[in-house]
Amino acid sequence: MTFVGKILVIVLLVFSILFLALSTVVFSTTADWRAKAQEQKDLVTKRTTELNDAKQAVDNQTKNLADAQAQHKAQVAQLETQKADLTTQNTTLQKDIADARTKLEVALKNMQTAQQEAEVRAKESTQLRDLLAAVQKQANEFKERQRELKDEIYELKRYTEDATRKNDDLRKRVASLVQLLRNNNIEPGTATTSAPGREAPPASLRGTVTSVNADNTIAEINLGSDEGLLVGHRLKIYHTEPRPEYLGEMEILNVESDRSAGRITSHILGKKVKEGDRVAPQVQPRG
Q1: Where are the alpha helices (DSSP H) in the chain?
Q2: Can you name the residues that pair with 35 across neighbouring β-strands?
Q3: H or E element, residue 277
Q4: CB under 8 Å, gap of 24 or more: what pairs does 113-117 form?
Q5: Tell me, what's the pLDDT at 191?
Q6: pLDDT tops 60 at residue 173
Q7: Residues facing 15 on adjacent strands
Q8: I want to staple 1 with a disulfide (CB 3.0 to 4.6 A). Which of 5, 63, 124, 136 is the partner?
């Protein structure tokens, strides 16, 4: 029973008492008032008893209400505690969600960075493969060039050995020519042409140096008496490759049918006569 119900019960009880009193007054005017008074007294006693019972019921209900309110308050306090716990758990969960979101964003960034790095590594790997292929190709070219150089070195060794042999042969010939000149009372370097009236070599002569001694003082050419060359003739020495250049002059000391030997009497400072250089009475850069 609610508090309003309890008030209504009390009001009804008061009205009942008033009605009883009024009824007593009315009854006392029309009947035996003593009997009626006793009856009304009994009724009042009954009503008082009922009122006391009602009061007791109200007290009980009030107590029950207090107990209910206390229980409600305890339940509210418990719910508040649960609410606080749930709020704390919610805050923790929100923080955990925020941390998880942050970690997820970091993981995504790391994944993107790793993907970019992987792409860069892939490009670098491709470049390295291309570079390795180029280096391998270059290494193969170097090996091929090394083989070619070994062949050239071998050819140069053969050429050097042949040149050394020719140089030794030329030294021997020069020595024999010098001895021959001295036996004929002619000092080397003062020989005259053996053909009077032909002091100059034929202007059409063109030849090539076939060998030179180590001192760069004696040279052998591929011209001889068959071309009209005589002892004492002087020839100019030059080359045309890589560019036309005058090197010096030589004097013929010994003449055979197809070759001759002579002394290099002058040369440009710092220039040396080499096998393959050209000879002629006059410099012919394009000859």
Answers
A1: 3-30, 33-183
A2: none
A3: none
A4: none
A5: 42
A6: yes
A7: none
A8: 5
Residue 255's φ and ψ, nearest 5 degrees, are -125, 130
Q: Are 221 and 233 in contact (CB under 8 A)?
A: no
Q: In terms of Cα–Cα distance, which of 30, 24, 60, 61 is closest to 42?
A: 24
CA distance 224 to 192: 17
pLDDT score of 268 more than 90: no
- Token pair of 102, please? 């942050």
* Per-residue pLDDT reduced to its tens digit, 44-60: 888 788 888 878 888 88
Q: How confident is the model at residue 207 (pLDDT cuts 50, 70, 90)?
A: very high
Counting every residue, how long is the chain?
Answer: 287
DSSP conformational letter for 167: H
Tokens 């005589």 -> residue: 230
What local confidence, expressed as pLDDT, does residue 210 receive? 95
Element (H, E) at 195: none
Spatial CB neighbours of 267, under 8 Å, sequence gap ≥ 6: 216, 237, 247, 248, 249, 273
End-to-end CA distance of the chain: 145
DSSP strands (E only) in the chain: 207-212, 218-221, 234-239, 245-255, 260-267, 278-280
Say if residue 37's pLDDT is above 50: yes
Give the strand pairing for 234-239 and 218-221: unpaired
Torsion sign, CA atoms 22, 27, 28, 33:
negative
CATH number belonging to the domain at 190-280, selected among 3.10.120.10, 3.40.390.10, 2.40.10.170, 3.30.499.10: 2.40.10.170
Contact of 278 with 240, CB cutoff 8 Å: yes
CA distance 107 to 181: 102
Residue 280 has pLDDT above 60, yes or no: yes
CA distance 177 to 261: 9
